[in-house]
Amino acid sequence: MFGKMDHVQVAVADIEKALAFYLGTGGLKVLWDRELPTGVRLVMLAGKGEAKLELSSGPGNPAPGTIKHIGYKVADLDAAIREVEAAGLQFHRKPQKPEDRRLAFFRGPDGTEIELLEQ
Fold this sequence. Notes:
By secondary structure, the protein is of the alpha+beta class. The protein has a single domain (5-118), classed as 2,3-Dihydroxybiphenyl 1,2-Dioxygenase, domain 1 (Roll). Helix content is 18%, strand content 43%. A hairpin with a 5-residue loop joins strand 7 and strand 8 (113-118). It starts with a strand and ends with a strand.
């Protein structure tokens, strides 16, 4: 059901320090940088591979270094939701449509947040 891994979101304590590391030492580039109305800042980074790294900083963030979620691409979000629900798992963030994509979130068996992303 999961497609290719799209990204991993990681909580950071100091986003400017993290950006200096990932852009300088890591050689990644910024795809987008936005601040949510909640005050959380998200920055999506990309390197040479397909998977991306999303940094998260701000109110309500868990401990630095914590993986906040893993995002997977899916061809059909509605079909993927049906498969996940048929496996006995429930979505805690139902489908949303920010910008040019649809996404939804559920937790895996160990509590890891998983994002399904249809673009």
